[in-house]
TrEMBL record:
This is 2-dehydropantoate 2-reductase. PROSITE patterns: PROKAR_LIPOPROTEIN. GO terms for molecular function: 2-dehydropantoate 2-reductase activity; NADP binding. GO terms for biological process: pantothenate biosynthetic process. NCBIfam families: apbA_panE, PRK08229.1. InterPro entries: 6-PGluconate_DH-like_C_sf (IPR008927), 6PGD_dom2 (IPR013328), ApbA (IPR003710), Ketopantoate_reductase (IPR050838), KPA_reductase (IPR013752), KPR_N (IPR013332), NAD(P)-bd_dom_sf (IPR036291).
Length: 333
């Protein structure tokens, strides 16, 4: 593949700026399609990508094009879709109009509906599913910090994986991207709990009552997913079915296990928490909403997911950021 054609980032926020920054830092040409406020921030402070292990990569400005004009995709070899799920349809239409027809489109989004939607809006193009297991926090002043561990996974395609894997950003290929995205959806059921808690992920996961609530929600989610005949593939080193019992372990045992399998910075929080704080619409309908839709279709009960959806919608409507609830308040809501 000709690596001198740029890699387009369709919606440069937390994930887009981090992934785009890492690719540019390794010499790839990168075209970031961003909002004016993000362009302004990077134009003023530069783009810095930092990592949970303390490392930092310098992003050379000559490898970056930054614009709110989608015509920057006109010679893209690949376009990485990094908008929130509600914006996927609109972004697909921009890609259809502006990116060359041979550009590979990769969704690096959470949820299981983005790839089918991109394929529907981009007929005849190569659209690959992807999964980002790690968290990125936008720390301001152009700094995008990766705060948890894990490698990106994308559907097997020689050109896609080789263009994206660079030092510090490993990309693995899978033959079962659907299973991987469903497995990530199960993990992402915590996005809403973390958003409602108003505490960092590490602090939340250190408390057994939060873990029990998450375990109950995951178990409920897995019943629905399995009823669809889907076998979720865990994005962590531990199988999805082990997660609920492991989450219920006492604090000391769980802490030891977590420390051996994942790195989580003290400031890491879910992307849904960031949405609530910024007064943006969340992805709740694309995460817990998928579980309740299956439950409705199959006559299953999914009371925890329903409760969490209601609380997130309430927080969106209130527009005051995270309500800072306890697990007991969520269960009783
Ligand atoms: N953040 C994280 O740690 C993780 C996120 N993910 C997933 O990755 C995806 C992206 O998340 P994240 O990076 O957090 O999202 P962000 O909201 O930080 O980034 C998306 C950016 O795209 C912008 N955007 C939307 N439409 C356009 C457009 N037409 N032109 C230019 N810019 C546009 C948004 O602006 P605006 O807000 O103004 O619409 C926003 O700045 C989501 O599906 C998320 O669930 C997966 C793993 C971890
Ligand atoms: C926190 C993380 C990495 C996993 O749940 C995530 O996917 C998100 O913040 O959207």
């Amino acid at each position: 593949m000709n690596t001198d054609r740029p890699i387009g980032i369709a919606g440069a926020g937390s994930i887009g700026c981090f992934v785009g920054g890492m690719l540019a830092a390794s010499g790839r040409r990168v075209a970031l399609l961003a909002r004016p406020r993000v362009i302004q921030e990077i134009a003023t402070s530069g783009l810095r990508v930092t990592n949970f292990d303390g490392s930092e990569r310098t992003v050379p400005t000559d490898r970056l094009t930054l614009s709110d004009d989608p015509s920057i995709f006109s010679d893209a070899q690949m376009v990485l879709v990094t908008v929130k799920s509600a914006d996927t349809g609109e972004m697909a239409d921009l890609v259809a109009r502006h990116a060359p027809s041979d550009a590979i489109v990769v969704s690096l989004q959470n949820g299981v509906g983005n790839v089918p939607l991109l394929r529907e809006r981009l007929p005849g193009r190569s659209v690959l599913g992807g999964m980002v297991p790690f968290n990125v926090v936008a720390l301001g002043d152009g700094r995008f910090h990766r705060s948890t561990s894990g490698d990106i996974v994308i559907a097997r395609d020689a050109a896609g994986t080789s263009a994206l894997s660079v030092p510090g950003l490993a990309v693995r290929a899978t033959d079962d991207i659907d299973g991987v995205q469903w497995g990530k959806l199960i993990v992402n059921l915590n996005n809403a709990l973390n958003a409602l808690s108003n505490i960092p992920l590490r602090q939340q996961l250190a408390q057994r009552n939060w873990r029990r609530l998450l375990a109950d929600q995951m178990a409920e989610g897995m019943v629905a997913v399995r009823a669809e005949g889907i076998a979720p593939v865990s994005p962590t080193p531990l199988p999805s079915s082990w997660m609920p019992p492991l989450l219920r372990l006492p604090d000391g045992l769980f802490e030891m296990l977590l420390g051996r399998t994942m790195k989580i910075d003290p400031e890491a929080r879910s992307s849904m928490w960031e949405d609530l704080q910024r007064g943006r619409r969340t992805e709740i309908d694309y995460l817990q909403g998928v579980i309740t839709a299956i439950a409705d279709r199959r006559g299953l009960d999914a009371p925890l997911s329903r409760r969490v959806i209601q609380l997130i919608h309430q927080a969106e409507a209130d527009g005051k950021g995270s309500p800072g609830l306890t697990p007991e308040q969520i269960r009783a809501a």
